[in-house]
UniProtKB/TrEMBL annotation, chains A, B:
One of its GO terms (molecular function) is ATP binding. Belongs to the aspartokinase family. This is Aspartokinase. Keywords: Amino-acid biosynthesis, ATP-binding, Kinase, Lysine biosynthesis, Nucleotide-binding, Transferase. NCBIfam families: asp_kinases (TIGR00657), PRK06635.1-2 (NF005154), PRK06635.1-4 (NF005155).
Amino acid sequence: MRVVLKYGGSSVATIEKIQKIAEYIIGLKEKYEDVVVVVSAMGKTTDRLISLAKEITENPSQRELDSLMATGEQQSIALLSIALNSKGQKAISLTGFQAGIRTSGVHTKNKIESISSDSIEGYLKNGNVVIVAGFQGINENGDITTLGRGGSDTSAVALAAALNCECRIYTDVDGIYSVDPRLYPKAKFLDRISYEEMMEMANLGAGVMETRAVELGKKFGIPIFVGRSLSEIGGTYIMEKNVALEEKLVTGISITKEIVVTTISNIPFSSENIAKIFSIIDGCGLNINMITQNLNKYMRAELSFSSQLSEKYLLNQIIDKIRADFPECDINLCEHLGMLSIVGVGMINNSGIAGKFFSVLSKNGINFYQITTSEISISCSIDRENIQKAVEAVAQEFSL
Amino acid sequence: MRVVLKYGGSSVATIEKIQKIAEYIIGLKEKYEDVVVVVSAMGKTTDRLISLAKEITENPSQRELDSLMATGEQQSIALLSIALNSKGQKAISLTGFQAGIRTSGVHTKNKIESISSDSIEGYLKNGNVVIVAGFQGINENGDITTLGRGGSDTSAVALAAALNCECRIYTDVDGIYSVDPRLYPKAKFLDRISYEEMMEMANLGAGVMETRAVELGKKFGIPIFVGRSLSEIGGTYIMEKNVALEEKLVTGISITKEIVVTTISNIPFSSENIAKIFSIIDGCGLNINMITQNLNKYMRAELSFSSQLSEKYLLNQIIDKIRADFPECDINLCEHLGMLSIVGVGMINNSGIAGKFFSVLSKNGINFYQITTSEISISCSIDRENIQKAVEAVAQEFSL
């Protein structure tokens, strides 16, 4: 039997923690014949490296930033391998290129194109625990690439797909709750959740796992376990809907605390213009969530979209380009907002959820602005100061 | 015209220094069409990484230590490239494997086997300053390797040979002096020195440049300039003897402050036994200098050799292995010693130098223990506390 384990940055933040993870892995080798471990960079290493680059310039070369950031994982895998070897367990560390992880896309936000697992299989056959750098790969030019923040989850699930085994993501939370327990301590713990619900939760800001990783798990039917590092209790399985759960109406609440809503008004309306704006956004690699568009009687369009406040440096690049291409447009930013979403596979077959959601907000004096919906979720932007109140009211209404 | 520049760790120790190096390189681009820059890790990064590994175990896996250490240079090259790009100079960073640097040998002490410079040539053709990670490469198994401390000099000279151009090593000293000016402030500055003399100086502890780098320069006839970072004055050219200088008797003094002399006595004498001891030493990768051997009347050999005190962890491994294979031997360490050498291409044709050297030491009450000689050098071990006195006496005697 084989397994892919993944440890996040906080699980390997110190040498002491790395030693404990090494001991845990040696214990697991009794159960699993083949163990592959994906590791993130130690603690805040990635942030520290980015801030070094930012000391030089606000807009560092993205190719070079990738190469710089990738050193964080290269260090943590080498140290974990040193720890395993020193305790008598053969182990070998592999960077993205050594593990055969090919990527494509824009720098700092690459996607995994393929994994040639021959070298991993070879090292496993020789009795090694194989430790792979998460978050990184190599593109067709031979450049070192990264997969975007949280990309180590994606590395782990992609490796589990390539090796056809279970993926166990170890982190600093017990698993998945219906609502972030830091915001709503009475939140219910979920033993199981469907890929679809988890994707909405991840996308909408639950922050426990990267959406792409869950999507990849769904695509290849890889069961994903999420649980606390070094703990034997708790943990949530992310799996197919039909095996996962009876269909609850609303499974969870997801919050993104800091968003910025950009509104571009007075756009001369044509599909070409709107497409051009989105291609500028794509070109800069900004992740946007809620998108809404209106048309006024003078055939001028108004386009709004939300993005993470933490990516405002990308947003600023986009605004400069839009200003250059559409000098007649007005651009306004609203930065005091957060996003609130409810998620549940049952929604699609049940009417009245939206009404109940919005009436509970208005009853509690909480204004909502943009609204977007998917088959299994409803999201809206609200004032950041109202997030706590909104979570409590909605959680009670839907018995989460 | 093209050039390979090399900056050591202290030249890129801070972001501010990296910015200054970037500006200097942009200035150089007016003179040189093609510029390749080899960079070491920032400041004390390599030491910090090694001590992380040592927190886990005294004997870390050498393959993993290589991969860990190589991140230091990957960071500094990415940051220098970010600085150049932000100032409008196209630049690209290449790790050892990206630059096509193939190595062979034991981990942490690899040798450069070959450089396929195609990718570097391609990037140069597109107008890039190409920044290459010093000190590292990749072996035939695809493992990341390092070249040993100071290996960045070797990387730079090997690249200059592959690209057929001059190599300029920038460091935190003005160039080469006849004696380390920190020990003997009246030391003469040398504008030029021959490869051979520099090799002896490097080997014997002058510490300005790696011997292998000078050897490589000699082999491929690459002129090597050594000078202070960001300074336009001073600097020493290392080049062929006949063009370099009139033959002085003694060109310089070289000091290794902290050595340990290991004496193994009561070895049952046979060539096999002595060869076996040296193969144990080679296997652990310890660099040894002075070697002496005596045979007593009972056909028991006594073997002594000196090594750097900083490599005592390797020496301990060797002693354990020798004790296991030769339980009847006595092993003694003498740790309070330093090494003093005089170097000069003129020595070979002039008698009386050795006599002058030893008599000046004894006149000043300085005991010397082991003695070894080469065609252009004489070395001996002395008590560490006498080094300063010995340097002054010998420098005056030979007018250095």
